[in-house]
Amino acid sequence: MAIVASATILVLIAGITVAWFLRPAGHLQTGAATMNTAVPRVTDESATPNNTGPRVTDKSAGLSYELPEGWKEEDNGDLIDAFTSSISEGGAEGKEASAVFAGRGDGLPSSALKQAAESMAASNAEFFNPYGNSTMGDSRPTKVSGRPAHTVVLKFKDDEGGTGHLRLTLIAVDGTRSAFLIGLAVRVGDAGRKRVDAVLESASIN
After folding, report:
1. What DSSP designation does 156 have?
2. Could you state, in order of their start, the residue ranges of all structural domains in the chain?
3. How confident is the model at residue 156 (pLDDT cuts 50, 70, 90)?
4. 7-30+44-205 domain in CATH 3.40.1000.10?
5. Distances from the Cα of 132 to the Cα of 6, 87, 96, 135, angstroms
6. Which residues contact 85 (CB under 8 A, 6 or more apart)?
7. Which of 51, 53, 70, 119 is 20–30 Å from 202 (CA)?
8. For residue 132, is pLDDT > 80?
């Protein structure tokens, strides 16, 4: 079964991720894959140079991020309650799709970010691509607007050879709330993957 990529399915899939994410910290899953690598230097992703252009200001999540040329912002009325904003690449049809979702959750200590982000990403990839497989490509601490964050990248392949890219950044905004961005690029090649990555790297806290 090929990776399903319609906008409606993407929203439903991501909703399952958020339902997991909002569980109390004591109930974090432990089955996600981890990488035994040295701790990298922590950089602030929001300081990464990006093209200046239109931005989405998500007041509910407390984030803003770039709206690439040719992409459109989804009507909030079309989103499930777990999400506060979403954008997708206009003209994507059939099995090809690129989309970014934003949302917010309860507060998380910085020490819980890695486990939470890896479990969120793994669960989302498994549900999104139940008949294929996924591998973790990167898992690293970072910062967004000076706040602790963690970014996870997963690569997945379906049973028809289609490939996908999932990138998730989870941010500890303050002691009472967290925020996240999930980027999905399905069968869009390196250029599409880089566009999704650039959106997540452009994020800043309002």
Report:
1. E
2. 7-30+44-205
3. confident
4. yes
5. 17, 25, 16, 11
6. 56, 58, 60, 61, 73, 74, 76, 79, 101, 102
7. 119
8. no
